[in-house]
Amino acid sequence: MTFDAFTILAQLVNFVVLIGAMHAVLYRPVRRALEARRLAMAREWAEAESARRDAEREAAALREEREAWSASKRERMEALEREVDTQRGEALEEVEHEARVAREAHADALRRDVEDARASVLHACGRLLRDELKMGFEALADADVDALCVAAFERSLGELDEGALRQLRSEVASADVRVYTAHPASDRLRAGLSEVIEGVLGDAVSVRFEVDASLLAGFTVRIGSREWGWSAAGFSAAFESVARAVADEVARAPHGSPA
Description:
The protein is built from 5 helices and 4 strands. It is of the alpha+beta class. The chain is rod-shaped, with a radius of gyration of 64 Å.
């Protein structure tokens, strides 16, 4: 096989021309198209990146708004709860105050009713006792009863010490001894009481007898600042005093415990 130099040279020239033609016709347009495509992609990428940043900013703004709204909602709920608690507390205090006032008013009314009932009972008992004592004194009103009362009075004077007797003698020196009887005193009662009084305090003592219907029955002797009595009214008053003291002690005692 032989090589023709002319043929080889012609092929080389043809190849160089072909390369030049391809560079002029194909490479430059393709390169421009690729560059244009690169620029377009870069622009699209920049726009996409800008859109992403805008979206992130909007998302951040939305998160901040949501957090602010949540915080505001929480504060509003807390404020509402505080207001509700305050109103509930005020309502409870008002109800408790009204209930306390009602209880106190009821207790006061009940206490007044009990006091009135107790006073009525004590007064009725005292009246019944006075009536019974009056009837008893009237049934026993004879010389023996007067003598027993005079003897009891004499014993009471005899039990006084010397200091008390001196005080009585000093008081009767400027005042009369008064004897009060429910009915006009009998001569025997006058004589018996006068004898006892003069025997203890001296003959110079002045004894005055007066009628006091409030005694109901019996008599009372007043010497200076001291008084002795055996009367229905006195016994009744003593009974009422003791009964009232017992009732007060029972009222003060705690419920369920002995007085």
